[in-house]
Amino acid sequence: MYLILYEVGNHTYMLYVDNYGGENHTDNIKIEVKHGNGELQQIAFECDDLYISTGIDREHHLLYKGTLTCRAVLYNPSNMEIKGDVEVISPVKVTPVALSNNLVGEWSYTSYISVPPQGYSTVEFWRNTGGINVYDLETELYGAIFTVELHYRIKGKEFVGFGSGTITQNSVQAAVSSTVFIGGCVAATVSLVVDSYALTMAGVISFVVGFYQTVG
């Protein structure tokens, strides 16, 4: 049974029950309907896991980059459409520090939303990392849990989002092939294929790549 109530105030309904046993019962139900504030509500905030992809910079150093992405889900409880600009309030807090220090540029985000009556809308926030070297990735970031505390404003109302995720590496492989020189002499030739499994399981690869980054 569903009751549709359109007016604010106290409502009394008579409930009639037929128990099919020859006896009928009635009872009164009182329902109070109050005004809602009709304001936009944040009902969820979440962040994707941060996937680090391999790449090589102009100096042929092996680096890793990714995009930190979070999203807020908003609900409009009113009977009217809610529209407004989105504004991120700085600073955005990100942990661990090693990740925060490797973020570049400013936060990008959905700049304008339109939420239908009794409907939902999503605001996305994202920021890229710079090139992360393999040492920092393996010693401080790979497998770590990151957190994000982000404040933003829509139509003068401030929201706070708390999200977290895992820093991991995707399946993209990087081929490294170069010669390492020390004092003008050829010390070693490096030719490796580095993937997430190798970086995690083979310390010798980490040593050679780190050595290559230092002197190459």
List the helices and strands and how they pair.
Layout (H helix, E strand, L loop, with lengths): L8 E10 L5 E10 L7 E7 L2 E7 L5 E4 L1 E9 L6 E14 L1 H4 L7 E2 L2 E4 L4 E9 L3 E2 H8 L3 E10 L2 E13 L4 E9 L2 E10 L1 H6 L1 H13 L1
Parallel strand pairs: 4-13
Antiparallel strand pairs: 1-2, 3-6, 4-5, 5-11, 6-10, 7-9, 7-12, 8-10, 12-13, 14-15
What number is the mean pLDDT? Answer: 75
Radius of gyration: 28 Å
Q: Write down how many β-strands occur, each being a DSSP E stretch of 2 or more residues.
A: 15
Main sheet overview: 7 strands, mixed
The stretches of 5 or more residues where confidence is low (pLDDT under 50) are: 1-8, 172-216
Strand content: over 45%
Order of helices and strands: EEEEEEEHEEEEHEEEEHH
**Helicity level:** 10-25%
The structure class reads mainly beta
User: Order of strands in the sheet with the most strands?
Assistant: 9-7-12-13-4-5-11
- Enumerate how many helices there are, as a single number: 4
First-to-last CA distance: 75 Å
The coarse silhouette is elongated
